[in-house]
Design a protein that fits this description.
The longest helix has about 30 residues, at about 95-125. It contains 11 helices and 12 strands. The strands form 3 sheets. Strands 6-12-11-10-7-8-9 form a 7-stranded mixed sheet, with helices on both faces. It starts with 6 loop residues before the first strand and ends with a helix. It has 2 domains: about 5-95, Arc Repressor Mutant, subunit A (Orthogonal Bundle), CATH 1.10.10.10; about 140-280, Endonuclease, Chain A, CATH 3.30.870.10. With about 280 residues, it is α+β, with helices and mostly antiparallel strands.
Amino acid sequence: MGITADTMQLGTYPVDKTNFEEVRDALVSFGLTPNQSKVFFYLGKIGAKTASDIAKAVNIPRSETYHLLTALQNKGIVEASFQHPIQFTALSIKDAVNLLISTETERLNKLKKSGPELEQMWEKIPGATSNEEEENEEKFKVLQGGNQVNSKIFDMILNAKKECRVLGSEKDFIKFYHANFLDALEEQKIDFKLLTSITEKSKGILDNIDKTKIKKLSSSVKENLCFLIKDDDEVLFFIKNEGNNKEMRAIWTNSETIIYSKALLFNNLWSKTKLDEEIFNE
């Protein structure tokens, strides 16, 4: 396969750029950083390689590559040989995913058990009590990294009382699918609306959702627009750029002005868009 505008080079291995980015984003949702995902992808597709080979192929400084390999070994999804020089290999994608899910499940179970203990310890220590004015104050929070962003989205969905509205590109909804946000919306038994530029390629991720709750975004709407509104009292919107920093970033706020502007945009796009049955009937 020759190198074109749609391909990228990992060493001597040409890769479809779009396919790689989809896999990388999915791995990020499992707790890997973009560079960890890149190294794991390379090893998984090429096979055993030395740290030096990996650094050259993925275009990451050798010192950082060693840190990435150590982190991937700590996660259990990359193994090292006893030979010299040391060669590194990746687990199969099936085994890696199962291990990452198992590790995260165990971590969450531990947190769930230790939560009440932490609350009891906290309450033993006296402090200033917050007044109603402080609690109702408008706030915002910058969220950096998949764990922070995904945790906040789950919190918004699980605490929604009436409705959630979500707008995003096809890539965004693929991430939401892998992070189980769509399942969480269904399980909450609340009203929700989804506006997305989903295509035939990925329509399967919406198969189990009531099609009256989905509308297809016009191609004129920019791909970098993505946000979630909960009950008209909270909004989370993603910050996207075209630079090298691929880490997930978002801003959460309860600002009435920002919520109103996002809701106005969503409702305007929803009202102007017909229920698009075409992609589900093809």
